## 1
Amino acid sequence: MPTLFLAPTSFWVDQFVNGLTTGSLYALIALGYTMVYGVLQMINFAHGEVFMVGSFAGLGAMTLMGGNDLSGPMIALAILVALIAAMAASAALSATLERVAYRPLRTAPRLAPLISAIGASIFLQYFVSDRTQGKAKFYPDVFPRGTVGAGAFHIEYIQLFLIASSIVMMLFLYLVIQRTRTGRAIRAVAENQANASLMGVDVDRTIVTVFVLGAAMAGVAGVLHGLFFQTIRGTMGFLPGIKAFTAAVLGGIGSIPGAVAGGYVLGLAETVGREGLNTIPGVDLGNQWRDVIAFSLLVLVLIVRPTGIFGEKVARRA
Amino acid sequence: MRDRGYGSKLFLALGALAGIALLAAACGDDDSGGSGGVKYGTAGFTSITIDSGASVKIGISSPTSGDLKAIGQPIVDAAQLAAEGKDIKGHKIEWVVKDDLCSADGGAAAATQILQEKVVASIGPVCSGAVVAAEPQYEKAGVTQISPSSTAHKSTYPDRGAVFQTFLRTTYSDDIQGPVQATFAKDKLGAKTAYIVYDTDAYGSGLRDAFRTAFEKGGGKIVGSPEGYEKKATDFKSIVTNIQNAKPDLVYFAGFFAEATPFIKQLRAANKDVKFFAGDGVKNDEFTKGAGADAEGAYLSLPSPAYTGAGYLTFGTAYEAKTKAKRDASPFVAESYDAATIIINALNKVATDSGGKLTIDLKKLNDEIRKTTLDGASGKIKFDARGENAGGATPVTLFKITGGKYVETPR
């Protein structure tokens, strides 16, 4: 798209905001991957489905609260209830998965829980798809439309809300990990399970907590995804799940700041990065190329810096 | 010079090789002749025997689950309706319905399943992506397929050059729909510039090309680069930003309602004024239901004549009584009813009965179907050598969404 040479600043700002929006969702989901990897060195491939179930729970809550008939302050209340319901549903699902699909395999070879996770992922995808006849469901279209900003910079309300709530959630998680007893237990278990256990940390409980915290983030992402894109379906978790996993690896799997950074890098690469490439004469990458860009970036990072942006931990372990 | 000698010998050898290859390619597809300037490939016509008491099987390849079930199921229902109360010389008709998910992979898989069942003919695939993937299999088995809904240019102009003898359609090609859309966009909607968003499958990319060629020929300008998406995409934000930057008069959407719904919502959140125009894949009640107020004022077209004939009224009444669904909730139902009627009529003509045993010569069946002329539910149908429906005079209808309903608008 050579015409983009002439694209106004507002175009790049808009694409930047789009990148931050998608990136926020990736980052929120990536936290779950990275935290579980941090304590168990296991990739929870069913995490994308935890996100999907959260999204459906949020839709259920909003529908019960009045759906498309919501108005005024009731909208804010419904969104709040939806967020709580989604966090609860995702957390419950994730804790169940941990108990049923992963804990029995904790001492098994590393491939076993991975395969169990993929199985759980496929089961959940098709279970929900079956329950919904494979059809898309729509979030109520109640979030106020409009933009805020000045000059070349403006941002839609919904994007502002999405980015802001993601950041709040991530800060909350950071505080939990760094400032609370539970957080200290999580860090201890991540460092060394056996030693943490000797120091009186309940390892099983801590691991469940990790799953629950990661799932809560995914649940929030599910509701935000629903509010923003409005269309949800049983298979919606797969691609964001893989992308968030990519983000976690980009940032350095096991590292919490890494997952956040990876999410934003990936989101921006798909939007600003794609349009940036399009300014090169002769290059014309349509929207369908965004996945190619994301995964090429992953391959590149794995070749050049296999530990990711923030990941020294893995190197030390390996 | 030595060097040059070597070089020219190499050149000569390569040239000869290229020549042989071209000759071989030209001959390769030419083995079965054709008619009307159309070259056919070789179809594996055989004959199928049906034991006494056994039923005659006809396949249907259609998306019967997922988002596009809303397109696929009505087409299945309409075809089955055509067989009600009918038989093939005393043998019952049995439908072999396979879900092709509207995808290339699904179309090929459904074709394998359908052909395993020894069907004598098949309806579908519904989606062009599935048609293009499945055509070689039907051709190899010599089983004639009639698609009631595949509109892509590629369905009848395959990449391999030689036309598939076993493929026909009761709907009309995008070669007809595209130019009508382009003229409508330019003359009636006053659009000088258009931005294209398309599904990357055979249907979406085919419609994109048909519209783009006709629109540019008429003096219109395509702004920005056409943006593709894969099925089930939900994030169109980046495309919408590009649209805002390109400032087109009209956004042309070549795809299905399942993605058009989130797309138009995201488009309207940023831009209330740009005109939205789409093809048959979006004309479905699911679109007006899902997109609600954002769908208001959208323009759509259908590659079918306005249904006004007596055949349509009879069909419509029977269809609504059977399915409890509206006859115009989803397109191509009348075309599907006609496709099934054509197959059943032709079967009754070519099947030979010997002591309760039916023999069906698939080549004769193909010839009989190709000869058919029908004044059916969807209008007049006759096939040209390429397998196109050449029956209708003005087979494109245009709609504007007004008050949540598709209201026909003059072209």
## 2
Amino acid sequence: MDTFLGLDYQTWWFLVVGGLFSGYAVLDGFDFGAGAWHLFFREETSRRIAINAVGPVWDGNEVWLVIGGGALFAGFPIMYATLFSSLYIPFIVFLVFIIFRAVAIEFRSKEKMAWWRKTWDICYSISNIMLAFLLGVVLGNVLQGIEIGENYEYQGNGLLEFINPYSVLTGLSVLFLLMTHGAIYLLLKTEGGLYEKLTYLVKRSIIAFVVIFTLTTLYTLIFIPHLSAKIRTNPMLYIVPLAAFLSIANIPRLASKKKYLRAFLFSSLTICLMLILVAIELYPNLLLSSLDSKHNIDIYNAASSQKSLKIMLTMVIIGAPLVLTYTIFVYNTFRGKVKLDEHSY
Amino acid sequence: MEVEILSRIQFAFTIAFHYIYPPLSIGIGLMMVIFESIYIKTRKKEYENLARFWTKIFAVTFGLGVATGIVMEFEFGTNWATYSRFVGDVFGSALAAEGIFAFALESGFLGVLLFGWNRVKPWVHLVSTIGVFLGSMFSAIWIVVANSWQQTPAGYHIVGEGFNARAEITDFWAMVFNPSSVDRITHVWLGALLSGAFLVLSVHAYYILKNRHVDISKKAFKITLIVATIFSLAQLFTGHQSADGVSKNQPAKLAAFEGHYTVKAPADMYIMGIVNNKEQKVTGLKIPGGLSFLLEYDFTAPVTGLNAFPEEDRPGQVNAVFQFYHLMVMIGMTLIALTLFASFLWWRGKLFDKRWLLVVFVFATLLPQIANQVGWFAAEMGRQPWVVYGMLRTSDALSASVNANQVLFSLILFTAIYLLLFILFVYLIDKKIKHGPYDESVSNDRPLQNDISNVVTEI
């Protein structure tokens, strides 16, 4: 098997996909999170500012989903096919809400009637809450394992099996984490009354996250022991959950000092560490079969050929610096507090 | 109903809906680049207003393109799992290239394009506009490369058997430059550029008719007419190249285009007609030997007919393929006639004298849209019963674990939400068109940009 810097191509591609998913979770995470708060803001101006805080970037953030999905398809087609066809309903509902959210952003500002704006505010908020929750639900199902049988085909009935205690817990964890993340993003982008309100809301969401996340962790340790097996046998890896714990603890500390840029970096770091934890727990598996471990999908049986992976890794090496350059350029252009102008939503 | 037919309906519906928007983005993108470049060169404010106006319309089409595009990507996995496993290795690199080199470029600069007018220097803004435009053109390349590979596979080998069979890439450049990709990319590009150009023509013709924004609209109309004329003519050439390629690589599809059944015989070219697939007859207006002449420059050259292929290996819906193909060709000819006639009037200095011509241009925006849609229908239905030509049948490409109820559920949801999206699209475009380009005469009393922070503090 070919290797590059000591790691095989499959592992490299696993890292690429992981990196893209982390980027997506951090970026679309803050705009889902910010949107989930929407109904908590009472004044029209506050709502407009909140939407315009994500206005220039939400489209670009969704690109990470397209690219992340594409990378999974490209590198691990079997994983892509099985995951999407077995979690058919949640993925379709996710798509519907992602469209609905875009519609709400576009429609809302176009008419001035109060009922019009209120309707779209509700749609916008619910869509964001559902999107964050569904991401967590999918994650929960992947961690817990699904009924995969012969030929990597899903054996369940595919209707409501995706809703189960664990996936609801992971769904809520992701929701509260992203709401914290989104509130901090908004704190960076707002001033005055809205800012004051957010300083209060962010504290509440951190508490909610910590409570739910503790429950999720306990559930994982008790009912899904296979997930923590790798960390228990390899004490070096304890550093990751420890870092995650410190990173979470750092958020309220920095928030109370009103150092929101740093708090945002730490909420981003927390999201990444959570995903790294997921990656460690799964590797080299991608999707566990709850029927029989011989049907597990891992990075070797799901991967594209060496040749294909090599071509794609070359592209990433050429392309990643380019993408990074103009992403920084765009964020730099729009740094600072939101000012509504004639181009605003 | 069956999973297969439901999945096919869903895919056809979502892709057809998606395909309204990216071509418009590409086409409008070019016009934005042109208008903004003229502004940078001449420093005339009116061209900046024009570029800004079209940027707003572009934003709508782009947003809808992204939203409906994510659906397409997900559907490969949700509904066509076997297909995804089969093509993943080959498509992987095309998709990766699209994501990294095209889509990221496009979306990255989009924020600056839409919201950066007051934040960056004019030339930096122009660079962003060009970045977005090029990104959308590159996107088209990779998507059409992937689709062309399904039509004319190259640079691969098959590993595994039965359920586990899949195509693996052996030669990246052979995959990229498979026999049909270049012809089809240029054909798709021009179709996209025409759809944008004709929208610009339509809107400005409307303004001229309504006596609003007349000066700037006349200028914009003329510039765009040049673009539309050149591309309409060029489309004839790429169309011919494509048909030529189809005759070599997918003779069954070409035979279906013209309803040509006899195994080896001179083939006619129909202007219009109806195919009776049972009796293998076409009734209609034809040029005898026309297809033979088009391909071989000889009215008596034999062309392979549908009967040369086993019944189960050739498209079943011959009449539909025939009609879609002919509608596309007919529209292409109409666009050439229309743009040449308008250019002729311009040359005689009478371009805006004929109101009826402007009315025609207002509605002509639908023509390239229809041509793009039916062209793809002809291309994709003509490929049947294969999803990957000669290798994987559409009926074998489904997700084995997905049942009809699930697909029905998603189909209903998509229908509802796409209806909403379409209303949104028409509503937004209508609103922006009614609002019109920014007008100097009313703009002077526009409030300065409010520093909203003051307002917020008061609340």
## 3
Amino acid sequence: MQQKRKRRSPYPTWFFLPAAIIYGTLFLVPNIASLWFSLTRWDLFTAEFIGLANFRQFFSEPFLVKSILNTIIYAVVTSGLKTVLGLLLAVLLVSPIIWRGALRTIVFFPVMVSTIGVGIAFTALMHPTRGAINVALENAFGIIGPGWLTDPSLALLSVAFVDIWKGVGLATVIYMAGVVSIPQDYYEASRIDGATKVQQFWRITLPLVWPATITVVTLSLISGLRYFELIWAMTGGGPGFASDVVASMIYKQYQAGFYGLATAGNVVLFILIALIVLPMTWWFNRREVEA
Amino acid sequence: MNRDIAKSRQRRRIAAGVLTMTAFLAVFVTPFIFILFQAVKDRRAANRLEFSWPESWHFWENLVAVIEARNYIVLLAFFNSTIITVASVTLLVIFAAMVGYVLSRRRTRFNGIVMALVLAGLMIPPAVVPTIWVLQGLGLFKTIHGFVLIQVAYGLSFSILLFRAFIATIPRELDEAAIIDGAKPLQVFFKVVLPLLKPVVVTNIVVQSVTIFNDFVNALYYMPGRENVTVQLTLFNFQSQFSSQYNLLFMNILLITIPPLLVFIFFNRQIVAGMTAGAIKG
């Protein structure tokens, strides 16, 4: 009475197949192929091996180097402010404030809206002479506002500001879930010991929302490094190359027909993300274990 | 005296609420009011870019003008975007649920690799030009079905994580009972498990459809050309074409904002649940 045949599992591994085929063909294969094509001069039909020339170009052309710096600035500024503001808003929105539901809805709505639409609206609001922001500044304080998107030293930060405006709701929602899951006992016990609200925030809330912090920082950093929609809608990388990031440079090189260089840009972006995100995740997780 | 304290505390709460609401309205709602005002103004008034109450309302006129622009391209774009969104989300939900199901039910030798690939999908930027090369090789470049598959490939990671976390909370006994009754794996999955996943399916549908409907960059790369326009591409192209007709440009923004707004009104709770799911595990 031995088992006749090994019974098939009711959870067959071929359930992975449909997803694996699509993911493999359209995500994995291109990414692996990019390692080769980034070493070539390429027009989609013939690829000529040129070694590391694309990478050398990426790190020697001033505007390409600048785009790498801009990417880091943009990601750090947006991610940092989304994290800080998201936590503060979350603490506010889980406190027993009136109209709490409505307030939560208001913060989150911009997350859902078309980035291009938001970009166009803010481009109009930031118009150097006619835009509502500068008109308001002049009427209220008599200040002549700067050219938010036309001043090369401001353009990138202005776009980053809009990015924060649009994305802070997501950070807030993630933090809200984190803050709610902190047991109330901690707050009660500390209140009996005479802790102030500020002390409670630093000593209880901040350490205990650590997992949410990891998520918010990682998510916003990765998206800050990768996306260029808003930049494309608002400045197109300009004025000049002042607000270009690696992702928008990749698109520009692609448009210009430099496919090998564009692909090298992709590899650079990947390495950049890995260099920033992997050590950070490792550090975050170690701190979590210690805590 | 206690009542006085309670009363002053109550008053402070109301004051804090009013203050917060005012700040929130000023920061988060004003830009939307600006969009609305711009969309209903006449051409001259809109081009002044003033943030002011419209002197005259031209809602219908502008709406019709936007829809008729460039031979009804907005309608075509809405049609394409709807098809893309519905098709991609359907495939995403089914395929991701299948992966999440086996991943959380059975320890296979693939589990480690699958999880590594899922995380890689969240982190690694897609290699766009080689993807175009692959799509061309398959004859799928600039086609709607090719674009649907792209959206599925890019969305899988997030959906799989959502499903895996949720399926782990469903007792195994349920599917084991069906297996003992002789159900085949596909039957177990579609008839027993999938119906139990309704909350996470709704979350997936809502989050992914908003993401895909709003996606611009992928459309920019993979859907060049006139007949395959999506709503976001049309809006982007209108930016240069309508540079002297801000009323129409903003009417288009308004139109594009309506579908997510509807989704948001009906599924507010699921969206928030979905955005935070898995977030707390770290």
## 4
Amino acid sequence: MQNCTDKELIEHINDRNSKALSVLYERYNLGVFNFVLRYTNNREIAEEVLQETFVRIWYASHTYVPEKGSVKTWVFTISLNITRNEMSLKRYSYQYVEYEEIFESENNGEISDFSNPIDILENIELQDTIKYAIEKLDPFLKEVVLLKHFHNLKFREIAEITSTPEGTLKARFHKAINQLEKYLKKEI
Amino acid sequence: MYCGNKNYLLDLYYNEGNNSYLSDIKNHLEKCENCKNEFAKLQKSLTVLNAIKFEQPSSIVLKNILKETAISNSIVNNEVSNESNFLNPIIQIVVGIIFVSLVVYVISIKISLSPIWNYIKSTWFGDSFGSIGVAALIVFLLGSFVTLAISPILFLTYHQRKNFN
């Protein structure tokens, strides 16, 4: 079972093989969990979404169409849809600000380079700062940064997941990086 | 060709595109100082993001998922075994009629032999129904009792299947 491809695992899941689901879970649980965790910055929601994603995979395995994309894309599409649903509930409303407006007035819009990335990487506080900065991004910007940078999906695949043109996604990515950069400059 | 469009820098950083496209970009960066600086800036920004480490979800999540799959599997297995064990509906009805008729017949014989039947027969009740009639009434009452007794189980099973579907 461990040597099966993702598509073969989906076929086994379709035959109600829970071992295949466990193997698929082993492959994608970290990705899905950390994607949702960074998206929501809430561990409880991330675990709920992770569970719901794999339960849906179990019940909806027959709806997977290999021609439409990879299993990885399909799994992330399911988790993104569940996350968006969760976040659209009033109890988890989005809270984000346009950093450009804040920092252009404080810093005249200038962006300075990171001086020593290796030192910065070792700083645990930086992790929290980055997490906080990502959390504050607009959801559409956040999606593309998380899926692209942290989960190594191709822009073509992210376009399938989010139903957005590749050009728009790249523009969003640049915008997100600019916002993160500005925020991190101020915090570091 | 590439100046003024930052998208190609992303393609180079993430290695997306065919070799000739990527080598074209590299050649351009060697000639264009502005684009080279932009790429260096992008690299630094994205390197900082790598500070975030992946976290592990709780092991309860997988247990809950497998619990859910086990429930659905047990329902499916029950349905399969029910299908294989039970005869088709027409045969079920025929077998049911034969079974009920036999029970009525046996009870009516027993009743006719018993001293209680002799007492019942002497009243208007026995006269109007006869032994077969009384036996049928007993079977009907017993059947109603059993149906009512198992109705909560039937109700729960129905809802469980409905939720599964």
